[in-house]
């Protein structure tokens, strides 16, 4: 049996780590791309033999083609999970052009560039699955995250455009929109703001926060043949938050 090969960007913590772990546990060799050498190597050591650290800053768009080509040299890339991203919480009028561009650069431009280079490899093999990670911020208006919301809305539009254009090459492209998931990042945001936490839980019909594994399970479904007739979709994994009243 041919072992599949995956790339997970930002796979050294949070949702990316859970996703990389899920893929590795199911026998998929997974390149974990992270900026921090120490953090990325530690994550791979914790996951085990199928996890391979790749130390790279995705803001370096010019370096992405060579980096992807190097990874694809050994084995074809079957799965790409575009998970890396940054957030910025600021009043709308306080967001500078540089702030906005920085979020768009990391959350959108790097996703585009990585995807473009991986698709070149996938087209040769007439097979592949790309999973983009969006956010509830693209589903409805959340104050103080204008750049993040813009980047995630663009990711969902890009998912649909990619899915249609790449379908004839055997490449599927889907997107997960996580709701409020228990991670260090969300805990920091919610635990310091009880009002926001109550609002989040109050409009989540299931009444509790998700776990990183909930996102990993959805990503695994999209990444494998279990979803072979699914492309261009956006799946909210949010306990009903996006339709909550």
Protein model, in words:
- The chain is an alpha/beta fold and about 240 residues long.
- It has a single domain, classed as Rossmann fold (3-Layer(aba) Sandwich).
- It has helices at about 15-25, 35-45, 65-75, 95-125, 145-165, 185-190, 195-200, 210-225, and strands at about 5-10, 30-35, 50-55, 80, 130-135, 170-180, 235.
- Strands 3-2-1-4-5-6-7 form a seven-stranded parallel beta sheet, sandwiched between helices.
- It is globular and about 50 Å long.
- The model has no long low-confidence stretch (mean pLDDT about 95).
- GO terms for molecular function: oxidoreductase activity.
- Belongs to the short-chain dehydrogenases/reductases (SDR) family.
- It is an enzyme of class 1 (oxidoreductase).
Attribute tags:
Rossmann fold, alpha/beta, 245 residues, seven-stranded parallel β-sheet
Taking all Cα atoms into account, the compactness measure Rg is: 17 Å
What is the fold-level CATH name, i.e. the topology? Rossmann fold
Q: Tally the beta strands.
A: 7
Shape: globular
Biggest β-sheet: count, sense, barrel? Answer: 7 strands, parallel
Per CATH, the superfamily is NAD(P)-binding Rossmann-like Domain
Number of self-contained structural domains: 1
Arithmetic mean pLDDT = 95
Helicity level: 40-55%
* CATH class term: Alpha Beta
Order of helices and strands: EHEHEHEHEHEHHHE
Give the amount of beta strand, in percent: 15-25%
Based on secondary structure, the structural category is alpha/beta
Our measurement of the CA-to-CA distance between the termini, rounded to an integer number of angstroms, reads 48 Å
């Amino acid at each position: 049996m041919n072992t599949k090969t995956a790339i997970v960007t930002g796979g050294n913590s949070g949702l990316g780590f859970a996703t990389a772990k899920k893929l590795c546990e199911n026998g998929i060799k997974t390149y974990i791309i992270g900026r921090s050498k120490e953090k990325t190597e530690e994550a791979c050591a914790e996951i085990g033999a199928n996890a391979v650290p790749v130390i790279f800053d995705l803001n370096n768009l010019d370096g992405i083609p060579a980096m992807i080509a190097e990874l694809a040299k050994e084995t074809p890339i079957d799965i790409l999970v575009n998970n890396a991203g940054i957030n910025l919480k600021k009043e709308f009028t306080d967001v500078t052009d540089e702030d906005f561009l920085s979020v768009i650069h990391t959350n959108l431009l790097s996703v585009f560039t990585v995807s473009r280079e991986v698709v070149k490899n996938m087209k040769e093999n007439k097979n592949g699955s790309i999973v983009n990670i969006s956010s509830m911020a693209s589903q409805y208006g959340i104050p103080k995250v204008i750049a993040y919301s813009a980047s995630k809305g663009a990711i969902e539009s890009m998912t649909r455009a990619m899915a249609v254009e790449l379908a004839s090459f055997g490449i599927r492209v889907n997107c997960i929109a996580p709701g409020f998931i228990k991670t260090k990042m969300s805990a920091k945001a919610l635990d310091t703001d009880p009002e926001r936490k109550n609002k989040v839980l109050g409009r989540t019909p299931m009444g509790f926060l998700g776990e990183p594994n909930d996102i990993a399970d959805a990503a695994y479904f999209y990444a494998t043949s279990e979803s072979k007739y699914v492309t261009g979709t956006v799946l909210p994994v949010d306990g009903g938050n996006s339709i909550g009243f």
